[in-house]
């Protein structure tokens, strides 16, 4: 006889408990790590917490508190080791890996000299918009879980892991969770729409940028008057503060450059020729 499927409120309660314990572990771990590694405390704590519970076929503290157990998509067996491992890795590092992949794609596009500047700008803006909506993907999945039931983590959904009750669950009214799911879904869609709107607006603004700035008296990067002009390897000119500052590629054509290739233009004032 199959055990009853876990209710959304029980799954949510277990997830909240586990999230609390993982954050406490991350706080303790952050105090032990060097400052430049503090950002890794959250995924590492999630990996450690789940490795000593889920990966060993044990309930997490939250699952034990709620009286639920992980099962595979048949609802008759415990998840396989490979499914549990993949679920843990996706939950701990999925967002970071996605952001890293998008950032790497951005750098490749910036270094691609065969693309036209307009195409480069369009692709970069779309990649940045996708990077901004990565957190909203998890929110959309969580909202759908509130409405249709199922695990709250994307990793468990991908690997086919579900939950069943191992003790009688108290009767409860779950309409409020469905309402929460609808509100969360609307908020996530609005946030995604804003990200794409900002990306489109930026693309429209980029169309107004000139491809050559030799006759301009203003630096395109900082929009200030060019007092000490410098020229890059691509031929575009900017002020010295921008060239020797945070810029790593030309803001107009996206050509990468190094500081030792910047050529200061002595005794030259933009717009005089």
Q: What does it look like?
A:
With 273 residues, the protein is mainly α. 53% of the residues lie in helices and 6% in strands. The protein has helices at residues 8-30, 41-51, 61-66, 81-111, 117-148, 154-158, 175-207, 240-243, and strands at residues 68-71, 162-165, 229-231, 237-239, 263-264. It has a three-stranded antiparallel sheet. The chain has a two-stranded antiparallel ribbon with strand order 1-2. A hairpin with a 5-residue loop joins strand 3 (229-231) and strand 4. The radius of gyration is 26 Å and the shape is elongated. The termini are far apart. 23% of the residues are buried. The model is unreliable at 210-215 (pLDDT under 50).
Structural class: mainly alpha
Strand content: 5-15%
How many angstroms separate the termini?
Answer: 88 Å
Count of helix runs: 8
Question: From the alpha-carbon coordinates, what is the Rg to the nearest angstrom?
Answer: 26 Å
Morphology? elongated
Q: What is the chain-wise order of helices and strands?
A: HHHEHHHEHEEHE
Total DSSP E strands: 5
Which stretches of 5+ consecutive residues score pLDDT under 50?
210-215
Q: Quick gist of this model?
A:
The chain has 273 residues and is mainly alpha-helical.
């Amino acid at each position: 006889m199959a055990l009853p499927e876990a209710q959304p409120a029980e799954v949510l309660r277990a997830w909240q408990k586990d999230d609390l314990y993982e954050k406490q572990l991350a706080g303790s771990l952050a105090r032990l790590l060097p400052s430049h590694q503090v950002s890794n405390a959250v995924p590492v704590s999630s990996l450690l917490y789940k490795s000593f519970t889920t990966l060993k076929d044990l309930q997490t503290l939250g699952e034990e508190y709620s009286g639920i157990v992980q099962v595979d998509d048949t609802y008759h067996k415990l998840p396989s080791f490979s499914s549990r491992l993949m679920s843990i890795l996706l939950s701990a590092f999925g967002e970071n890996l996605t952001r890293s992949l998008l950032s790497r794609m951005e750098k490749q596009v910036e270094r691609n000299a065969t693309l036209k500047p307009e195409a480069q700008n369009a692709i970069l803006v779309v990649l940045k918009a996708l990077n901004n909506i990565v957190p909203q993907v998890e929110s959309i999945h969580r909202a759908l879980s509130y409405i249709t039931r199922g695990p709250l983590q994307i990793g468990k959904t991908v690997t086919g892991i579900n939950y069943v009750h191992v003790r009688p669950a108290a009767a409860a009214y779950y309409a409020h969770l469905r309402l929460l799911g609808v509100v969360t879904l609307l908020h996530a869609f609005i946030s995604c729409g804003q990200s794409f709107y900002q990306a489109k607006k930026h693309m429209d603004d980029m169309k107004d940028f000139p491809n050559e700035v030799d006759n301009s008296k203003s630096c395109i990067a900082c929009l200030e008057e060019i007092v000490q002009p410098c020229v890059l390897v691509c031929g575009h000119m900017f002020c010295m503060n921008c060239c020797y500052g945070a810029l790593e590629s030309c803001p107009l054509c996206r050509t990468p450059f190094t500081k030792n290739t910047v050529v200061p233009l002595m005794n030259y004032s933009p717009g005089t020729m």
